[in-house]
Every structure is written in C-alpha cells, then in structure tokens.
Amino acid sequence: MNDSPAETVLAVDDLQVHFSTRGSRGARRTIRAVDGVSFALRRGETLGLVGESGCGKSTLVRTIFGLNTPVSGSIEVLGHRLAGLSSRRRRAIQNRVQLVFQDPYSSLNPRLTAHDIVAEPLRIAGRYSRGTVASLLDDVGLGADALAKRPAQFSGGQRQRIGIARALALHPDVLVLDEPVSALDVSVQAQVINLLKDLQEKHSLSYLFIAHDLSVVRYLSDRVAVMQKGKLVEVGSKDQVFDAPEHPYTRSLLASIPVADPRRRADAPTQLQES
Ligand SMILES: Nc1ncnc2c1ncn2[C@@H]1O[C@H](COP(=O)(O)OP(=O)(O)OP(=O)(O)O)[C@@H](O)[C@H]1O
C-alpha cells in the first residue's frame, strides 16, 4: 500500500471575497460572501461542500473559476498560484479544473448537437477529433446515435451526461460539481451519481461536490466541509461530520434535513448503495 500523502490538486488559502452594496438608506455595506476559507482537495478524493442558501458556495465556485476577484487569499491549482500567472498560462492551468452545472436543461446550447457541444472545448484547445468526441460520449454511457442529436432530444439524465462529457474533454484533474443531480428526477439521480463515481475511479478525478441533498453528499464524499456565513465552520471525514458533528451549525443543519444512511438499502430512497 502506498502511504505517501496524496497530491493536493486544488488549494484554497484564507480566501476573502467581498461585495459592496447599498442599504435602503444609501449607506455602503460590505458583504463578506467568502470570509477566510481554506481547504485542500487531494487527488482522487471528493470533498462535499454543504451549507444553506446564501452561505457563499456560489461565490466560492465563481472565484475558483476567476469570475470574482478575491480581496485576499490564494487559489492554487496543481501547485500553481492562479493570481501570479500570465493570462495564457492561467487559462491552461484553469483548464485542469472544470465545472459541471446544476441545470442540464439550460446549460447546454439548444441549437448545437451533442457532438458539437462536446467538441467545443476540444476545438478551442486545438485537440479536436471526431473519435475523441465519440469516446467521451461513450465514457458517459451515450452511444454513437447521440452524436447528431440536440439537447431537446435527450432526457434530463442524458443531458447531464453530455455536460459531464464536455467537462471531461480536456482531461481535467478536478471537477466542481455544482448541484449536479438536483434538477433531475430522483429515479435518475442515482445513475448519474454512480457514473460520477465510476469516472472518478477511472480518471483519478478529484471532486468538489456541492449539494443540498445530504444523503447524496454522504454517499459521494470522502470529506465534508460545512459553510456558514462565508466561513467553513467544520471540515472532516464524512463519518465524523455526519455521525459526530462538532459545530452547533452542523448539528442544526443535520437536524433540519434528515440524512438517510446510504449504506442501508431500506434508508436509501435513491437506491444509492455504498460499494
Ligand atoms: N454580485 C453580488 N453582489 C452583492 N452581493 C452578492 C453578490 N453575489 C453574492 N452576493 C451575496 O453574497 C452572499 C453569498 O451568496 P452566494 O450566492 O455565494 O451563496 P450560495 O450559498 O451560493 O447561495 P445559493 O445556494 O442560494 O446559490 C449572499 O449574501 C449574497 O446575497
């Protein structure tokens, strides 16, 4: 067995992202949407990120993708600090991290075929071949008949598979999964989650997995980070966070949303089974 510590693929250190807004009387107010967040994501692991709406999850994700500018702190991908890179180098490093969107209904261009959707990042990177596109679609369980179809001709689960194939096109090290199954029927959620598990193993992917459904978080995550008002109030193994939560906020979050134990079939409404 290899006991060496796993490589850190994404490191966020003391990140601060603030917004300035005007209150009802015109006074300026600073919102600390991300307020000193630090975590390290290791190769092959899944870190679940949970917290109530408005706690700062989207701002954190947007900042990882360069869409918000932090006030301070750093983001490192594969040991490269993003802020210090030239824009060309930054794009190349940023490609190591890809996003899977929540809503497969609105995130795919309805006018493009599945082939063109998956081909787009490959073309931009100068790495396009029809065989690569077909093999990416095959990887997510879609056959050659999918290539010429447009999003409206697919089910929600199939659309999310196309979104995953596109995210995998440039062989990333990290996928940020932003509520990847919450827009899907419960009956297909387990299929997509199990596909994500298989792909993770096959490609040694690391996942930052954001979800409201704590049963799904428990099933997919190795560690769980709990976010409240811009801060990570608790980070630990999933068993520690779910079975012995230390922070009062974690305890209240778990109490407000019952978590089925996915290891027990009778408790698993989405047929999630731990392997
Ligand atoms: N562009 C912005 N301008 C001003 N305030 C913002 C902006 N974006 C986010 N905020 C504020 O920052 C805080 C965190 O918002 P954020 O959207 O990151 O939370 P969230 O946890 O992702 O919520 P949700 O799950 O509902 O998407 C909120 O108070 C929000 O109102």
UniProtKB/TrEMBL annotation:
Superkingdom to which the source organism belongs: Bacteria
Molecular function in Gene Ontology: ATP binding
Pfam family, one: ABC_tran
Record-annotated ABC transporter domain positions: 12-254
UniProt keywords, alphabetically: ATP-binding, Nucleotide-binding, Transport
Family to which this protein belongs: Belongs to the ABC transporter superfamily.
Matches recorded under PANTHER family: D,D-DIPEPTIDE TRANSPORT ATP-BINDING PROTEIN DDPF-RELATED, TRANSPORT ATP-BINDING PROTEIN
Name of protein: Peptide ABC transporter ATP-binding protein
Species of the source: Frondihabitans sucicola
